[in-house]
Amino acid sequence: MEGGGFPAGTNGRTIKEISNLNRNKGGKITSIFGGSKINLMNADLAVLSACQTGLGKLIRGEGMIGLSRSFMYAGTPSVVVSLWSVSDMSTSILMKRFYENLIRKELTKAEALHLAQISMIKDESYAHPFFWAPFVLTGDWQ
Q1: pTM exceeds cut of 0.70
Q2: Are 41 and 71 a contacting pair, CB within 8 Å?
Q3: What are the boundaries of each domain within the chain?
């Protein structure tokens, strides 16, 4: 998935629509806006790099309801989300570095994200926390 994109199988649904996904049997989630299913059974990590994908709504007795929870209920053990509006350019750079750390250097998800963020801090153009700090990893960090 590219920065700001939707995962395959979402049929171009909006963030609001995807956040209303309900858990279904077999590691699939079904949107209340349609019958399509997104199979996340084998996904180890979902990266939702669009703006504010880590936000949700606090529901009394339930806790925070949002995209992260939807993906985790669907069987994805780890989710990277953003907590505020993000810059397309800096997000593209950070995600490229994150995936290089994760895949080529075979670091854990937490280490890969941490080192990508540190590399952004060292770059004068992107040292401000606005560019690197909105991204957080929830779930299984290894």
Answers
A1: no
A2: no
A3: 15-82, 88-133
